[in-house]
User: Which sequence fits this backbone?
């Protein structure tokens, strides 16, 4: 039987679509290039790292991104403002409510209806956003534990996150990508009995957080693995535009929920935890994880306060329509608008240009926090060991959907 | 904390090529300067202790289409200690979009500028590592330009969507 060539190599298929930045002929002796990813479990998605190594010491890290590029900005230029929201969900898909919230308040401010939104709607939005922030930090801490060898907390946290997913599914109809917050309102009011169920969840979760703290955060092995590793100095962090828990881990009390005081956050009582270098140096991996842990406590506090307001001052009424203010036609007047807010990973911003003539944004740029936070990785991983690189990526907590958009 | 008028005055003091113009329709309020002044103005906004814009929140590139035949770069600056904002806008010619880089002032500009190069084909003079970032290196054209036509084939694969 004659063998036939089943696949012919086309010359263009032999070239790399994403070539290495470092060239082999420029290396010094003893140096080598190692490729990590894109399919590597500890890179949290499709992140590819080109690493220049000297033995076990890292000389240079070059991240290659774009493997999950889904053309968010191009889509947004072809869709009306309200139809962009499902795409916004898909940016940071583990904290979709936070993204929706920021997008929705941005468009509402452009339309000038931001101050007319009913308080009940605002409290439900903050409630959902904080629940989702807890879920996002659960993933961050759980997978981080798994990255560096602690397997149990991952299962515990995934199980506890499942309770949040069920709550959000109950309210919105889907587990991950909600399309729940609309411009001018909400898709639907809270389902009957949600507040009670959510309160039960808070009672359930508090001792679990204590357990998590004992098994992972204050565990001696974990501290020895993360304290003093991947120190991000504050001036470098600000210069690199890093925000969110990573910036706060470096010791700056900067949270847009406090600084910009958007939505109903000024009416709620919460603290902004910062890294203090308790176990090693300020801004190390332990500090960043600890900040996330403390933020979960604060979010639990915020959820409790929202539930309290939603069952007292802003109670469910029969004639309450969360879609009452949803505009039929979303046509902001011609302007440029930059809105920012605190997502689970940091400052999520949207830049809009409205031309005043159409319902479609002329330009919608997403300033994503994971994208900017990831760009600090080459800066802090020169001269460290390769095992520590994995420990650092975990604490930066990137979601590739948001990096690549 | 400086008011917008004082900030505009500050920018005017450091512009040598043409008068900066105010643009109050945008939020945060913006000032439009010429390309040649960009680095000098940014350097002073970053270094001066009265302005101290230590954070570059966002860089947006924007294509106005073949009709006005211009592109724009929009820099959203923010000062953490003073809590004030400023937007800086720069217009570019669409035929030969070139602008000096600000990566030596804010490191965060590195990836933002690479993205603008990737999507709009804007050339950042002096950028240390100007490669495509999101699209494959052998992609043709700049996808977010208003007159972009997608290539028919990519690596022998027909792109029919």
Assistant:
């Amino acid at each position: 039987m004659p063998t036939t060539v089943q696949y012919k190599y086309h010359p263009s298929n032999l070239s790399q679509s994403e070539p290495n930045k470092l060239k082999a002929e420029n290396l010094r002796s003893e140096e080598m290039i190692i490729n990590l990813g894109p399919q590597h479990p500890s890179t949290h998605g499709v992140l590819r790292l080109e690493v220049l190594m000297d033995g076990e010491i890292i000389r240079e890290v070059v991240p290659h991104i774009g493997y999950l590029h889904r053309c968010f900005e191009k889509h947004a230029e072809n869709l009306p403002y309200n139809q962009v929201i499902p795409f916004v969900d898909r940016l940071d898909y583990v904290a979709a409510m936070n993204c929706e919230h920021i997008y929705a308040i941005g468009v509402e401010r452009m339309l000038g209806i931001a101050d007319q939104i009913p308080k009940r709607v605002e409290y439900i939005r903050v409630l959902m956003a904080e629940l989702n922030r807890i879920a996002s930090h659960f993933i961050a801490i759980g997978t981080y534990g798994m990255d560096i060898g602690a397997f149990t907390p991952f299962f515990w946290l995934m199980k506890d996150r499942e309770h949040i997913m069920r709550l959000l599914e109950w309210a919105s109809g889907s587990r991950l990508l909600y399309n729940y917050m609309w411009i001018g309102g909400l898709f639907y009011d809270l389902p009957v009995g949600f507040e009670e169920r959510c309160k039960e969840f808070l009672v359930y979760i508090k001792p679990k957080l204590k357990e998590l703290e004992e098994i992972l955060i204050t565990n001696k092995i974990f501290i020895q693995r993360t304290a003093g590793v991947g120190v991000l100095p504050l001036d470098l962090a600000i210069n690199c535009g890093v925000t969110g828990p990573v910036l706060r881990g470096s010791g700056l009390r900067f949270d847009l929920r406090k600084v910009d005081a958007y939505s109903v956050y000024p009416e709620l009582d919460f603290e902004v935890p910062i890294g203090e270098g308790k176990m090693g140096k300020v801004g190390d991996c332990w500090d960043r994880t600890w900040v996330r842990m403390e933020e979960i406590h604060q979010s639990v506090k915020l959820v409790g306060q929202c539930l309290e307001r939603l069952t007292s001052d802003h109670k469910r009424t029969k004639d309450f329509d969360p879609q009452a203010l949803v505009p039929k036609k979303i046509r902001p007047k011609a302007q440029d608008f930059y809105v920012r807010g605190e997502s689970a990973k940091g400052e999520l911003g949207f830049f809009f240009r409205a031309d005043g003539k159409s319902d479609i944004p002329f330009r919608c740029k997403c300033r994503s926090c994971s994208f900017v936070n990831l760009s600090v990785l080459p800066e802090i991983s020169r001269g460290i060991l390769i095992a520590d690189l994995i420990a650092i990526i975990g604490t930066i907590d990137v979601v590739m959907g948001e990096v690549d958009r | 904390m400086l008011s917008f008028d004082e900030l505009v005055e500050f920018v005017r003091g450091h512009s040598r090529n043409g008068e900066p113009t105010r643009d109050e329709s945008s939020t945060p309020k913006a000032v439009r300067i010429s390309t040649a002044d960009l680095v000098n103005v940014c350097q002073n906004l970053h270094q001066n202790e009265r302005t101290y814009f230590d954070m570059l929140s966002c860089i947006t590139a924007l294509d106005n289409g073949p009709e006005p035949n211009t592109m724009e770069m929009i820099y959203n600056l923010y000062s953490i200690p003073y809590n004030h904002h400023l937007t800086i806008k720069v217009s570019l010619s669409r035929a030969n979009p070139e602008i000096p880089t600000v990566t030596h002032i804010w490191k965060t500009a590195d990836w933002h500028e690479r993205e603008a190069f990737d999507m709009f084909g804007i050339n950042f003079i002096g950028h240390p590592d100007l490669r495509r970032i999101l699209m494959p290196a052998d992609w043709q054209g700049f996808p977010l330009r208003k007159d972009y036509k997608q290539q028919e084939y990519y690596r022998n694969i027909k792109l029919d969507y």
User: Anything to note?
Assistant: Chain B touches chain A through 39 residues (CB under 8 Å). Chain B has a mean pLDDT of 88. The radius of gyration of chain B is 17 Å. The CA atoms of residues 1 and 82 of chain B lie 5 Å apart.
